[in-house]
Design a protein that fits this description.
Layout: H1 24-31, E1 37-40, H2 45-52, E2 61-64, H3 75-81, H4 86-96, H5 105-125, H6 130-133
Parallel strand pairs: 1-2
Length: about 140
């Protein structure tokens, strides 16, 4: 598993399309040319697809982002409604990386259970689970 933090979305485009773009070779080195890529983005997923549609591995890029689900609720609950929470991302990895399969089935179930518990907690108490709401930013 690899985590790539994309700060400048324009780098997703080819270097010939945008001054901040990167070459196909560099893109493939970062995102691979043949493996699943799960892209967590707090905007509309179609933007990432539009920026990467000419790339080698475009068919394996799965974007999790804002899908206009939810209502007035907590920030983490909104992330869960849009399938962008940490639990769903782990489930997504397990489902897409074939070699994990049965070896990670218990972890997958733990993530499903954690999502259900977090949603229930928010419905009952109107706030996020303590593991989320008590977390302090490191800066």
């Amino acid at each position: 598993m690899r985590v790539v933090n994309v700060v400048d979305l324009m780098c997703l485009q080819d270097e010939g399309e945008h001054p901040h773009g990167i070459s196909n070779a560099r893109f493939d080195a970062l995102f691979t040319s043949d493996r699943p890529v799960i892209f967590a983005y707090h905007g509309y997923p179609w933007l990432i697809h539009r920026l990467t549609y000419k790339r080698t591995n475009h068919n394996n890029i799965h974007v999790r982002g804002y899908i206009e689900e939810g209502t007035t609720t907590t920030p983490f609950d909104m992330a869960m409604m849009n399938n962008l929470d940490r639990f769903h991302l782990v489930i997504d990895v397990i489902d897409r990386v074939r070699s994990l399969g049965a070896r990670a089935a218990h972890v997958r179930q733990d993530m499903v259970d954690a999502r259900i518990a977090a949603r229930a907690y928010t419905r009952d108490f109107g706030t996020d689970i303590p593991e989320i709401s008590d977390w302090a930013w490191p800066y």
